[in-house]
Amino acid sequence: MSWDAALAGIAALNGSAGPHGWRLPNINELESLVDCGRASPALAAAEDVFDRSGAVYWSSTTSMYEPDWAWALYLDKGAVGVGHKLQGRFSVWAVRSGLPPRADAGESGV
To answer: CB of 81 within 8 A of CB of 96?
Structure first.
């Protein structure tokens, strides 16, 4: 999907019931998953559950030099590169930081 469609997909994942914390990872987060000793996919052995993964994943990181391009992880080689936001057809790896607030936790989420 395009980068805009990826962002829309994340918004849909979060739903209309309020934020659930799902987001596109930044390029540093994606690259931190790479195991340089592996390929196709270049993920650590513990991540083998993704053996049916897409070839390229969007990040939330826009290129500083070309704002209509965003950084992406090419999972087969474990390399990073860029893709055109409108023309790129990459996969999405949604992430979130922490757990959503419990329903019985009240307003503060504690």
So the answer is: no
Question: Global pTM?
Answer: 0.74
Within a domain: 110: no
The domain containing residue 91 runs over which residues?
3-96
- Give 40's DSSP letter: S
3-class secondary structure, 50 = helix
- Identify whether 34 is part of a domain: yes
Q: For residue 14, what is the enclosing H or E element?
A: helix 3-14
Tens-digit pLDDT profile for residues 48-84 = 555 556 789 999 999 999 999 999 998 878 888 999 9
Q: Per the domain annotation, does 105 fall within a domain? A: no
Going 96 to 6 to 71 to 66, the CA torsion angle's sign is negative
Contact 75, 56 (CB under 8 A): yes
Tell whether the model's pLDDT for residue 95 goes beyond 70.
yes
Whether 85 and 4 have beta carbons less than 8 Å apart is answered as yes
